[in-house]
């Protein structure tokens, strides 16, 4: 008899699912039997991820367009999922995120607001909508997973806005974990280190090489490294873990 997959029957919503870490998370969850909603503001990117999922299995995965920073868009996303799938997402991964880097002397108010709006407010809006539904529909074993960043712990030159947003995600995660634990819902965060995705495409090669040398495991991270941690937090294998922050960094800044 074939072994039962970890996430059979579960519905996973992954924001930022069109690229990088979000895409790898969609694939890892689908491989374990979850039906996946690929949510992104970039339609082509979301479609590309969806195409890869349909090669994994026939779980009727879907894609949805959303701007996580806009409450109306988030509201429309959850209504559309309810209407189309008649199921409440019981795994929610907040991976949508952006950077707009500059030294503090050059950082504009707009750059600060833009990054906080997507990375922190976006995580709040999705998490709030998901929690309301999970509680009202009495979802058991719900798992919320927020992609923070190691930069939220140690800071980074040129990333005041980004580091602040990612530190904020940790505070949000722990507060939500305390609020929803009584409903059997868990909320955890992941702090990736430097992961090979389009997001870090503009970082000069010599900086990447420097960080590789500083990393005890001596390589750059892959999106799949983060996806494996996410899979663990989504699954019942982590059923006694909440309010936790897992660093997936190859040991840098331990
Ligand atoms: P990426 O740029 O490859 O993917 C981000 C995805 O989010 C894109 O598909 C983009 O269209 C989507 N997105 C951006 N703003 C959105 C919005 N307002 N609404 C909906 N979708 C939106 O980036 P990557 O590297 O996969 O990053 C994923 C998450 O991991 C982000 O939160 C990022 O901050 C975090 N992270 C990444 C690290 C890295 O080294 N790549 C390190 C630490 C954290």
TrEMBL record:
<comment type="similarity">
    <text>Belongs to the short-chain dehydrogenases/reductases (SDR) family.</text>
</comment>
<dbReference type="InterPro" id="IPR036291">
    <property type="entry name" value="NAD(P)-bd_dom_sf"/>
</dbReference>
<feature type="domain" description="Ketoreductase">
    <location>
        <begin position="10"/>
        <end position="197"/>
    </location>
</feature>
<keyword id="KW-0560">Oxidoreductase</keyword>
<comment type="pathway">
    <text>Lipid metabolism; fatty acid biosynthesis.</text>
</comment>
<dbReference type="InterPro" id="IPR020904">
    <property type="entry name" value="Sc_DH/Rdtase_CS"/>
</dbReference>
<dbReference type="InterPro" id="IPR002347">
    <property type="entry name" value="SDR_fam"/>
</dbReference>
<dbReference type="InterPro" id="IPR057326">
    <property type="entry name" value="KR_dom"/>
</dbReference>
<protein>
    <submittedName>
        <fullName>Estradiol 17-beta-dehydrogenase 8-like</fullName>
    </submittedName>
</protein>
<dbReference type="Pfam" id="PF13561">
    <property type="entry name" value="adh_short_C2"/>
</dbReference>
